[in-house]
Design a protein that fits this description.
The protein has 429 residues and is an alpha+beta fold. 31% of the residues lie in helices and 28% in strands. It is built from eleven helices and 23 strands. The strands form five sheets. Strands 1, 2, 11, 12, 13, 14, 22 and 23 form an eight-stranded mixed beta sheet that branches. Strands 9-8-17-18-19-16-20 form a seven-stranded mixed beta sheet, with helices on one face. A three-stranded antiparallel beta sheet has the order 3-10-7. Helix 1 runs parallel beside helix 2, helix 5 runs antiparallel to helix 6 and helix 7 crosses helix 9. It is globular. It binds flavin-adenine dinucleotide. The site of flavin-adenine dinucleotide has 35 residues, from helix 1, strand 12, strand 20 and helix 5.
């Protein structure tokens, strides 16, 4: 066979897999749909999370990678540390700390999810991808841009991957393949792994603006979440850092971003602002699915978002890629690597844990229950300047809301009840 390994997808997961496999001496080819591999054409917060967020005292967040990671900084470069799998990556792109995470109501009442400690860094994803691509090429990986992996088929001694590129369709063969083609993965679908997954919601879209000249009157080095039901009842707007003095903001629909820019509380932030880039992303092909529980099917291993409900995070994509390559190397040497990879996957991601579903549905319970900007202002004022996670604070203090707003209390109670039911459904899936 010409190749030991075919990698489909050249995001963080795929590039890391190609780099690691090539450095370890495997013959590897990577196919990527985009012509310019390292261009970040999809929305992404570009945060490197250094706190074990899900289990921290401050509460829970996100669905990503929960093994500890670290950042070591010297004069010239940073080192991103992954002590779980046992590797590190040099990083020389833009890097900025996040020390606050602030939830903001329509009248600017604030709840701090995190306050005054470094819980993560903005890191330039394009620079990160460039460095992985560079290392993969140097180590001898064959990189084929502008080519789509259409599907994979296990054979008795390997795997065939159908690809379509400039010169039409062809079949590549290798001993092993890695599906790193992100959410809505064609490779995961083609090997049948989606049959065991439940669809939880329609695909979720995100739109993002990168802006110059935003003037925000809240503490710097903050990640913000703006919650304004009159503009979008179900989804908050995220605001975060970019290189130089640029910021970004992202949410489900472009009208929401436009609405925030004109909303009286936030309008002054945008008086001198200019949109310099717009990106979008849709998570989940047919819809947002429960995770792949066993990310190995025959000779195909799944890494990163290809196996997650929405996101493993960049750090989870690279960690899983490293672990998948190590599993493949063991299997090629006649040892058992696949089961180790499955076991690792099941403990490394928050979306594999029941608390994850509590967080997700708790969030929707809140969003489903409030209807007006006054509802949100009432709740955020009640917990003004406190440190914690709004959906948890509210669920634990419903009686406080009953006193001032009995009718909102009833709606919230009903919202949390529905959330419990959805959680039971997701946990059984
Ligand atoms: C709105 C939003 C904000 C986020 N913010 C953060 C954050 O702050 N920090 C963080 O760490 N993570 C964040 N994430 C998640 C992060 O972007 C992903 O978890 C990460 O990029 C996953 O990497 P991946 O390699 O698995 O998949 P992707 O990054 O999706 O890469 C998949 C690659 O495969 C290619 N591809 C797709 N289909 C095919 C095909 N059939 N054939 C060939 N190539 C194909 C795509 O073009 C792409 O290059 C965010 C996600 C979203 C949606």
């Amino acid at each position: 066979m010409k190749y030991d390994l075919i990698v489909v997808g050249g995001g963080p997961g795929g590039l890391m897999a190609a780099k690691q496999a090539a450095e370890d001496g495997l013959k590897v080819v990577l196919v990527e749909r985009k012509k310019n591999i390292t261009e970040v054409a999809r929305s992404c917060g570009e945060v490197f999370y250094i706190r074990k967020l899900s289990a921290s005292k401050a509460g829970m967040h996100g669905d990503g990678y929960i093994e500890p990671v670290g950042v070591e900084i010297d004069d010239y470069k940073a080192k991103l540390l992954f002590p779980g799998p046992g590797f590190s990556l040099d990083f020389t792109g833009a890097l900025k700390p996040y020390i606050n995470w602030i939830e903001v109501s329509p009248s600017k009442h604030v709840i701090y999810r995190r306050k005054n400690y470094i819980w993560g860094f903005y890191y330039d994803k394009e620079a990160f991808l460039e460095s992985l691509l560079d290392s993969a090429k140097k180590a001898g990986a064959e990189i084929v841009p502008g080519t789509i992996g259409m599907g994979a088929e296990n054979t008795p001694d390997g795997v065939k991957v159908q690809v379509r590129g400039k010169s039409g369709e062809q079949t590549l063969e290798a001993k092993k393949a890695i599906a790193a083609d992100g959410t809505g993965s064609l490779i995961v679908e083609s090997v049948g792994l989606n049959k065991k997954r439940k669809i939880l919601s329609p695909p979720m879209g995100m739109v993002e603006y990168e802006l110059e000249g935003m003037e925000i009157d809240l503490p710097s080095c903050s990640w913000l979440q703006l919650c304004v039901p009159s503009i979008n009842r179900l989804m908050t707007v995220f605001v975060g850092q970019r290189a130089g003095d640029r910021m970004f903001m992202a949410t489900g629909a472009e009208e929401t971003l436009q609405g925030i820019m004109k909303y009286p509380t936030f309008e002054p932030w945008f008086r001198n602002a200019r949109i310099v880039k717009k990106t979008a992303v849709t998570a989940g092909g047919a819809g947002v699915r429960t995770p792949v529980k066993e990310p190995v099917e025959g000779n195909v291993l799944v890494v990163g978002d290809a196996g997650s409900p929405i996101e493993t995070w960049i750090q989870g994509a690279v960690a899983s890629a490293y672990m998948a390559v190590k599993a493949i190397e063991k299997e090629l040497n006649g040892q058992k690597g696949n089961q180790e990879y499955i076991d690792w996957w099941q403990q490394a991601f928050y979306f594999m844990k029941p608390e994850y579903w509590r967080m997700v549905f708790g969030m929707f319970a809140l969003a489903n229950s409030w209807q007006t900007d006054e509802d949100v202002d009432f709740i955020y004022k009640l917990f003004q300047d406190k440190v914690g996670v709004p959906q948890i604070m509210v669920s634990q203090n419903l009686e406080l809301i009953k006193e001032g707003r009995p009718e909102l209390y009833e709606r919230l109670k009903e919202g949390y009840k529905q959330a419990e039911q959805m959680m039971a459904m997701a946990a059984g899936g």
